[in-house]
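User: My advisor asked me to double-check a structure prediction for Chloramphenicol 3-O phosphotransferase before group meeting. I don't want to rely on an old file, so could you generate it fresh from this sequence?
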Amino acid sequence: MRRGRIILLNGASSSGKSSIGRELLPLLDDPWFLMPVDEISGMRSTVHARDLDDAQIAQMLRRTRLGYHRAVAAMASVGNDVIMDYPLSESWRIDDLVEVLEGFDVTLVEVWCSPEELERRETARGDRPSGLARSQNLVYTHAYDLRVDTTATPPAACAHTIAEALQTPTIPRTPKAFDRLRSHAEKSLLQAE
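Assistant: Sure, here is a fresh prediction for Chloramphenicol 3-O phosphotransferase from the sequence you gave:
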């Protein structure tokens, strides 16, 4: 059975990942599944979460994200193509994904947006903690296969850029970003031993 392909939309909070993911769906050959991490988090009960301390909340969020990684891998392992909407804002996330998604064709798309525009969007949304987007500096430190800038480019245009790139010989690159990240992690492990 063919393994599904994965497009990982990585960007700071409010950078436009969700909007681009929704715009991508009608542009790609069916079926593709949009699996935003926020939807997985939205499945969690919140009644008792108010009683958790900071350490317990951090553990719960880590378990949620680890489960998200494996849910994406499970969907793709049976031939489904998946669009991930997910910020790589903590180093352990990329380490786990590199391991969990080994053997999958992952296209890592950097969804970039200027800090000033991120702040404006965050304020306009009103559903994010103030300063969240600017605090996610690690998001933009990873290798990527393709970059879109949402500062002034609408989500539909960014989605078209991604869809077109997937049809051209420049994607996939050899090695792709996830393969380079995996190779770097393996070298670091060998050096540590």
